[in-house]
Amino acid sequence: MPKNRSYNLPSLQSCVTGRVYKLYCRNLLLGVYDGYGGFIGIRTKFGSRYLFTEYHWDFDPHHGTVASAIDLNIDVPKEIKISGTLGAKDERSERLIEWDENLKLTDRPNGWWRFVDDKTTDIDIHAATIRNRDLFDFLDDLEKKGLGE
């Protein structure tokens, strides 16, 4: 894709956080602008559908893939978080976990997971992403209405 403005790409500064755009990019039909240079939308790959972020050309000249972003004047409801994920949890205990860069273990010099509630760690933490189901469902409904076509 040539990088020029004939594709209706608004400037990065004029994109509205929480606004839905019809996109021309590698993997998404629709995306909500996250306020950080990315558009979060539903990607389909090998039969799986999940939230994925593609970036505005002006945000990253080497990896930006959004060539067109047409404002649909649809805002994500305020109660839905504009994020591809909602954090992480331990698969076994279902407790929320967070990454601690200061927690140095012999075999993990760059940090380790710890539980959010009591700040303890366990070598058997099995991290799993918490998917943002509300944002997925919101965008999925818009796609089903044909807004991404």
Describe the protein's architecture and organization:
The protein is mostly beta strands and 149 residues long. The chain is built from 1 helix and 9 strands. The chain folds into 2 domains: 5-82 and 132-144, no CATH class; 86-128, no CATH class. A hairpin with a 2-residue loop joins strand 3 (38-45) and strand 4 (48-55). The model has no long low-confidence stretch (mean pLDDT 88). The strands form 2 sheets. The chain has a 5-stranded antiparallel β-sheet with strand order 4-3-2-1-5. It has a 4-stranded antiparallel β-sheet with strand order 8-7-6-9, with no helix packed on it.
Write the layout of secondary structure elements.
Blueprint: E1 19-24, E2 30-33, E3 38-45, E4 48-55, E5 68-75, E6 85-90, E7 96-100, E8 112-115, E9 127-131, H1 133-144
Antiparallel strand pairs: 1-2, 1-5, 2-3, 3-4, 6-7, 6-9, 7-8
For this entry, give a set of tags.
single chain, 5-stranded antiparallel β-sheet, elongated, mainly beta, 8% helix, 149 residues
**Which parts are unreliable, with pLDDT below 50 for 5 consecutive residues or more?**
none
Oligomer: single chain
Beta fraction: 35-45%
Class by helix and strand content? mainly beta
Please describe the biggest sheet, giving its number of strands, its sense, and whether it closes into a barrel: 5 strands, antiparallel
What would a concise description of this structure say?
With about 150 residues, the chain is mostly beta strands.
